[in-house]
Amino acid sequence: MSREAARRLSVLLDGPAQRPDGPLARLALAWGERADISWAGEHGSHLPDAVVSLAGKTACRFPEARAKGVHVPRVVLCTDPVSAPESDEAALPDATLSAACPPELALERLAETVRQARRMEEARLRRATFGPLAAGALPTAAPTQDLSRGIPVLVAGDSARIGMALGAHLAALDLRGCLTAEAALAALEDAPARLMVADLPASRAAELLGRLRADPRHIALPVLALCADEAEAAALLTSGASDCVPRAVAPQILARHLLCLLRAGARRALADRVLAGYRPRHRSGKGLPALPRAAFERYLAALGGALALRGLEPLTLNLAHIAPPPLASLAANDGPFAVSSVNPVLSATLAASRDEDFVATVEGLGDIAVLRDAEAQERIRRRIGAIVTSTAFA
């Protein structure tokens, strides 16, 4: 697989390909240079990275994927959320896309949805292969967050509209209202939120989004913005809103958008915690044993079965073969034959990789990284080489 091909998303459009003027066809035309597009009934034998369907339509099912722990995220394109909603009985999608969202930004949002689905896949795979983590191995939640009061949802503006939409779910939520953007930012300083809703004039909402996205603590906070028309929606989505719906939308439709964002945020937080917990468990040193060879081979076989559905295979990288050993960094009082107290290549790999990248010290094999495609392998080789050759390890 070429590096260029590895960067392209495989997107299945779940609709009629014969409608050149339809919203899905317009997306296909806009994404044609940056994604591999197929249509329902015409895609090949490999699973797509994501399915994009219209609201109210039945999405393609992939039972063989679910059996192997593979999740193909479903994204709903909302062309008219006021009058063409999904039915209340339909399963929540992984994400929604407003038709007002600029195509390039929509593709970036789709890529992020795919990445979060892969992170959840990896978290499930590690739990199934290596067993659950001990309670002490999971990073603890922020101490300021009181989960006994429910899931914290912060509304900047008119909270009555949101309360009406979420009426059936209020027992599980801690709904807090702030009349201004400044009050909402101050409330986030006091206690974090799982979701923010901005029901403000467009200029004030855009200013709030800009300040939120400039703060590393809130850069991933899901934000639903309410708007008056498509022009406002496009501006707010470009400013950083996760989703945007008209103020005139029916309460049950607004509730679906809110619950979709809440679920996506909860999955992200869970994947973050689980993957961060497994990471130190699989490194030897400081009294930790190496990962047993049999457990590693079970993981590799399960990952291979999942990737095969996408036409890929796992790539195993022996870290000892990536870069030549760096010169030892010695202190003045070190003996002439002292060695570095850390493994430089392993340290560089952990710095260059993400939590979902599998890095472990395997019994009988040494330090191993397992990557999902050739582009990821080449990227991590370059990063590790640059870190190892330019860093002093003591």
From TrEMBL:
Query: Would you kindly state one Gene Ontology biological process term found in this protein's UniProt entry?
Result: phosphorelay signal transduction system
For this UniProt record, give its keywords in alphabetical order, as a comma-separated list: Phosphoprotein
- Work out whether the entry's keyword set contains Protein transport: no
UniProt cross-references to SUPFAM superfamilies, sorted A to Z: CheY-like
Q: Where is the Response regulatory domain?
A: 152-262
Residues where 4-aspartylphosphate is found = 199
Name-wise, this protein is Response regulatory domain-containing protein
